[in-house]
Amino acid sequence: MYSWAFYKTSSKETAEDLVQDTMVSAFKSYEKYKPGSNPKTWLYTILNNKIIDYYRASNTQKSVNQTTLQGSYADDDNFDSNGSWNRVQKPLWANTEEHLLDNPLFLKALSGCLDNLPPNWKGVVVGKYFDHKKGSQICKDLGISSSNLWQIAHRAKQQLRTCLNQKWKDN
Amino acid sequence: MNFLMRIVMMSCRQAALLDSKASFSALNPMEAVKLKMHLKVCTSCQDFYKDSALIDEAIEKITQQREKQQMELSDAQRNKILEALK
Q1: Among the four A91, A116, A154, B15, which has the fewest Cβ within 10 Å?
Q2: The model's pTM
């Protein structure tokens, strides 16, 4: 369970808290457990709900602090006010001859970049790539609109690319 | 002509946003055509488009790697959870 929670949140502390919360919830709602069903499945259902709650909470916190999420000019500095690229990034694939996907250093760099995303953006990435959920399901889990979802995916992609460009240059 | 261009063309930001949208749901025909035309003429966006696909693939790969990774709670962490259950 701890592995699973860490895999979903990439934070040891968060994973630990989530596992603890799950055990406490399971203990309290023990009467809801149907005898004969698989206890492991039951616990994982609770854990998965906790993970969704965690991302949803980070999402609402974020929108309170940062109401600019809706405004399209706010924080993607890759574009100027006309919506053109304001600093042209050298494409990643042009940096090297070898196949980047087979390069462990490249994957490690991206892994670090993924972990640095704000939690509510990470929720979208986790839903999309880790769980292979449909867009509508991710929206429901996180309590966001679909245009919000695209906007977040867009921002996350921009940030990942910028981050990779920087990290990759250091190598 | 200018008016027509503005309908057909869009900014690079919009194009990148459509790229993200397309990864969740199919674009409507108008959006698909606009994106296609934009990508035909804009080299910066062509680069971005390729990078975007590369990042997608790389994340898939990382996902597979992480899935195999096993983690154990330490005894102290276990005790903390047991403590919380009391």
Answers
A1: A116
A2: 0.70
**Binary contact (B85, A27; C-beta < 8 A):** yes
Q: Does the beta-carbon distance from A2 to B73 stay under 8 Å? A: yes
Torsion sign, CA atoms B71, B77, A33, A143 = negative
* Second-level CATH architecture of A1-65: Orthogonal Bundle (1.10)
The confidence band for A90, taking pLDDT boundaries of 50, 70 and 90, is low
Nearest CB to B59; choose among A110, A158, A161: A110
User: Given a cut of 50, is residue A67 above it in pLDDT?
Assistant: no
Q: Note the ipTM here.
A: 0.75
Q: What H or E segment, with its residue span, contains residue A74?
A: none
Please report residues of A whose CB lies closer than 8 A to that of B11: 79, 82-84
A30 touches chain B (CB under 8 A): no
**Can you name the CATH fold of A71-171?**
Arc Repressor Mutant, subunit A (1.10.10)
Q: How many CB pairs under 8 A join A and B?
A: 120
Query: Contact, B11 vs A84, CB < 8 A?
Result: yes
Q: How far is B28 from chain A (nearest CA, A)?
A: 14
Task: Quick: pLDDT tens for A105-151.
Answer: 888 888 888 888 887 788 888 888 888 888 888 888 888 888 888 88
What are the per-10-residue average pLDDT scores of chain B (86 residues)?
A: 65 87 87 89 86 88 78 76 74
Q: Which residue ranges make up each domain of chain B?
A: 2-85
